[in-house]
Amino acid sequence: MTEDRSRPIRLLLVDDEEDLVTFLTHRLRKRDIEVTMALSGGEAVAAAADLAFDVAIVDLKMPDMDGITVMEKLRDLQPFLQVIMLTGHGTHDSAWEAGRLQAFRYLLKPYDFEELHGLIVTAAEGKRRRMQREFDEKLNALMSSTTSARDIIEESEKLRREYEQE
Amino acid sequence: MKSSDVNTSRSDIRTALVGHGQPLSDLMAGLATRQNLLHLEIVALIDLGPADEDTALAHARQMGVPLIGTHVEDLARAGDLDLVICAAGNPAVPGALRRLLPEGASLLDCRVQPLFEGIIRLVEENRALRLDSHRLKETRLRLNTFVETAPLAIYIKDTSLRYKRMNRHALHVLGLKEDEVVGKRDHAIFPGGGARWLQKVEQETLQTRQTLHAGGVLPVQGADMHVQVTLFPIIENGKVEGLYGLIEDTTELYESELKLHQVDERLNETQKYLREVLENSRDIIFLTDPEGKILSFNSGAENALKFSRDDVVGTPADRLCTDSAGFAKLLKQALRDGHATRYEAEFRNKELHPVICDISLTLIDGPDGKPLEVVCLCRDITTRLRLKNDLIRSERLAAVGQMASGVAHEINNPLAVIDTIAGMVEETLEDEGRNLDASTRDLLANAMERLHAQVKRVTTITHSLLGFVRKSQTGMAALDLQELLEECLYVLGTEIRRSRTRIVRLYDPRIPEFRSDPMLLEQVFVNLIKNALDAMDAVPDRDPVLEITTSLDEAGVVVRIQDNGIGIPKEEQEKIFNLFHTTKPAGKGTGLGLSIVHDILYRLGGSVRVASEPGQWTRFVVELPLTPPETLRPDPSISAI
To answer: What number does CATH give the domain B3-133?
Structure first.
């Protein structure tokens, strides 16, 4: 976990605006972010089934499914995934809904690239912190409930594999 | 006199003659010729000095009158007599006769009175007497028949208040039998002293000898019978002998009167209730006469129009209306059709403020069918109307907002692409620029910077269209109004300095810190000050002065922002808070500013209004509550989305 800090941030970028996805990916990759592109909600969910991400940038309004639904489906697959909701629309209600589902942030298009980059980094760090915390908690629980050292080692290895997500 | 005598010789007077000697002879001689004329039936003769071949005896024989004796005492043998005529020279005879005179008979002393004159008078008297007695008998008979058969309840009591008689009708009415009544007193007939009141009045009748009336209740066959009695004293020969009582069963009358009374009472109560309802109604209700003069004015009217009753009663009602001719017309219509209605008519209250009312006039006709008065019922809809106008504006804002946010979304997406590409080109330029010559690199760098700037400009518009009120940073916090205003002036510092605007600050030091949304309020004041600067820019030959005043009142804080700029035409003043309405030349204003100001203040529980003298000045007045609403009011521009 902590040793993974050097590992590049894995980002899922979901927007039906192909130009935006293309050029934003280009710019983010230049900043050493591993970007997986998705042009629809369906594509995004399929990608998340294969690959673990730190952060997802999701457009709120897409033809096949709305951003909130996408966020819910992604969260089902990867509970620690941090989502930045991106929209050109931004109604009060969808912002509130995004907040309820704990989107990391809600950003209005056109965004400031530097702000977006900063958010991605913060989100990824937050995600890793949360995972670490949960890993530690479960490990502690394991230590106090399991008796044999061998069990502890076996179980903790299981946990490590689960939380290293690869 | 016996009744049979009345029948056989109705008018003859049974007469005995008593006397002696010459006087008797003279009498007999006189009577012999006048006997019939005088209607005398001479039935007996007593000759006190009889002699053979006495003249008197000869007359008697001739007239067929029997000689019944020669002594005064023989009179007893004469039988029934009406009259004894004495014709004796001896003065002791009349005296003796008077003592022996049978009952009902008169004595005529020929020695004292001239004979025939006396007889004639007696005869007349006697006749009249008999006639009266006869009439009396007949009257009694008729009265008895009447009493018995009349459809009136009549009774007769003696002086000890025992019933002597009760007629058939009375027995029927009181449910009694004759033998239960006659000879008895009331307490034996009406149980429980139920007739005590009657006895009291009867006593009074006997004592005062007056006809009296009384009313009361008699217990008859287990039920209360309401009766009216009339009591007549029976007076005979100056002596009270008893009384007549006339009873009238008034139970039905009493009950219907009682019902009538109850109906009356209910009617009174209903009227009272109605009066109170009218009086205490919050609606404006007043009455006028057919000429439109105010007759009454309820408290609702007093409250709404601020006039007291004394101010207006007696004055023409149309004076209350802004359009008094219109009211007069309405009144005419009501007089013609019985009813007239007008919506959104304008009254003017005592302070000359308009009060908008729906008016309904109803004509009330008098009992004679002529117009009596007109009821004017007016509902004050000023507040409702204002709310309606607010709602219309809000709805319009919402509709426009919905459309605008859709448009903004369409713009924002490509804008994001443009900005991303621009950033990428910029970065590429930085990384790879050394391969270009300096002037080309500078040109491209400058071009990219301008591209960013233009994107920002469009972004400002679309973001204000969308999210002006919904910035994520907004939130309630304690704020210092003076500090906030200074911050706004600082933000606009460049423009203020450029235009050489003089700022006059009149800050009320009493204003405490209060909770509101500082970010939103900054938007409000920046917008308003920016507007002011633009308005003063439009009058280049005048030194721009911006006056910012704060004050405290019961409702909260008041901020006035006044400029000496171009002003706002009257017809524009109402519209300036509408979305996309702008007074600025095309390209300079988005038309969003004041509608945002309006919406923000509405959400924060405050308000904004404008006053302006075109060409002279404009003043915006912002009011804010010291305590914000529990929850922000819904944003009217998004509530419908």
So the answer is: 3.40.50.720
Report CA-CA distances (Å) from B507 to B45, B503, B504, B607: 151, 12, 10, 19
Fold classification of B281-379 (topology level): Beta-Lactamase (3.30.450)
Q: What is the pLDDT of residues B86-130, one digit of tens each?
A: 888 778 888 888 888 888 788 888 776 666 677 777 777 777 777
Task: Parse chain A into domains and list their residue ranges.
Answer: 2-126
Tell me the ipTM for this assembly. 0.74
Task: Please report residues of A whose CB lies closer than 8 A to that of B408.
Answer: 88-89
Mean pLDDT of the B326-349 span: 90
Architecture of the domain made up of A2-126: 3-Layer(aba) Sandwich (3.40)
- C-beta atoms of B409 and A89 within 8 A: yes
Which amino acid is residue B612, in one-letter code?
A: S
- Matching fold, domains B150-249 and B477-624: no
Interface check for B461 against chain A (CB to CB < 8 A): the answer is no
| Top-confidence residue, B209 or A98 | B209
Residues 6 or more apart whose CB falls under 8 angstroms from that of B67 comprise B45, B46, B47, B50, B57, B60
- The structure tokens listed for B274 are 């109605």
Query: Which positions in chain A have a beta carbon within 8 angstroms of at least one beta carbon in chain B?
Result: 17, 19-20, 23-24, 26-27, 30, 61, 87-93, 95, 106, 108-111, 113
Per-domain boundaries in chain B: 3-133, 150-249, 281-379, 386-467, 477-624
Residue type for position B67: L
Q: Which tens digit of pLDDT belongs to each residue from A55-72?
A: 999 988 888 888 888 988
Q: Is A108 within 8 Å of B423 when comparing Cβ atoms?
A: no
